[in-house]
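Would you mind writing out the residues of a protein together with its fold in token form for me to study?
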Amino acid sequence: MAAAQLRAAFPNLSSQQVDDALRKCAGNANRAVEVLLRTAQTPARATAPSANLAPPDIRRQPEAWFRFFDTNGNGLEQGEVVDAVVRTFPNAERGVVREMIASLWPMFDPDRSGTISLPEFVKRDGLRDTLLAQLGGATASTDAGRSAGGGRAAASPAEDQLKSMFPQAGRARISEALERCRGNVSAAADFLMRQQAASPRSSAPLVMGRPVHLAPGAPGVACAGTPTPSGRRRALLIGINYFGTQAQLRGCINDVNNMQRLLMESFGWTPGCMRVLRDDNPQAMPTRANIEASMRWLVEGVRPGDVLFFHFSGHGAQQEDPHGFEEDGMNETILPVDFKRAGMITDDHMGDLLVKHLPSGVRLTAIMDCCHSGTGLDLPYTWTGRGWKEETNPFHSAGDVQMFSGCADDDTSADSSMAYGAAGGAMTTAFCDVLRASPCPSYPELIANLNRLLRMRGFHQRAQLTSSQCFNFDRPFLLDDIIPNGNLALGRIFRRKFPPRPRRMDGPLADMLGIGAAVVGGMILGDVLGDIAAGLFG
């Protein structure tokens, strides 16, 4: 099946070339796409780039930007990089750019070949990332493909390359694929190939870790093909520092600011589609009533193609599951700012509000940076590193919901120190840093980079991913890449009841809840609380 899809995507290459690429990549179709892209590359132009054309966007189309200025096909020379930067950032002073490139060059040309190759340019922490870090405040010329005098945009090299691979795809669809994949040609090719081959699912998703036994229930509606994004977006961001309490945190409001910047600067979301609750704003306090009302706002009236985002940074805890559905017998909870009066919000209730009624074709990405958040939305599938594991008593729904959390249910998140001394949750900080550094990672790359960054920064917690759908993990991570429903039955599948297994904890949060040593936990406090931090929540 993969070979047939690749032959259709690369009609100008022989079957032998496709088979060799798959063999070289051990059958991995996504990696084979990258090999075939290099094989199918057209020769580099021998002439200098036209002064009448603006260069491709270095942020969204780094490969196209590199090839635009690589006039001889042998890599970018130092002088070409200077010319390219000045051309891309018109406000940059040539003398300053020349000195900057001269000082950076030895870092990226260790073999003294005199040129920078495409892999050296686009790799993580490569020349592109360094240039953007140095010139991030400058305004780039991003009207790629338009003549200096205006008029109709010409196709970029990346669009031409994809058009030769997918002759049946319209220019609008190719541009959409590049936009969704933030200029990454390999990821855009993967997206177009999946759309080309999309078909209704006819069997239950494969789950490695626990077999899928679909009990009688509501029939699932299999959605044919990948839903087209509608352009409608909504985000709910919640940060609670619990000011003036025994268990005050430092980084949760900073987390919200960080996540909001990521959505706006890296993904193009606008403030008008976001609702932000934080306990330093009397007009938008994260009380239980306001959180529940905002969750209803987030999903109200959604239709296939809509894209949603939810982020919570604050205290998490647990309480006994009265139904015994959870494998540890405990419901996970989040704590609103008024939890002492209004109570905690359980994962069952959050699932009712955010997940269970989403139609197929709607995507919700959730980031939970709090304790006991591993299954914080009660999603049925957990990625184990070897495959998907289904919960013993899963609740299957039709929407595409993916939740990244900072720790397992029996673990604790951590308050970490970000740049310039500001505090921030370890998971939120790592998530934002990884996505800023890597424009379009695959899911394995995203999880590996999150865990590597957490480990490098001294944290024991690990990123957890749970999902409402079981999907091919070796695909690009995109906020608007919507996975159609593949669950053949919707609703609860009950297999066995679990007794509660509370995790005993001590500390100020347990005292505030009025239960002393208890089944609760908050984020580990940073150095602002000094020596008592280590003993607060275990």
